[in-house]
Amino acid sequence: MTRTEPQVNAAAKYSVCEAARAMQCSRATLWKYANYFKVVPTSSRVTGRNYFTGAQLLRIWRCAY
Question: From CA 61, how far away is CA 5, in angstroms rounded?
Fold first, then answer.
């Protein structure tokens, strides 16, 4: 995971792949941190895919560091 705060828009939605790229970690690591810090991603009603908001990503990063 990146040592500097990720540059994400707090109001934007990021797919799991995009979120992992922004945090500079693997998808598995992102899920590990999300589960550990109890961050629940939102899911799309249409496609059923999971999304993290920028605020959630910043919360994960701030808790990890």
Answer: 7
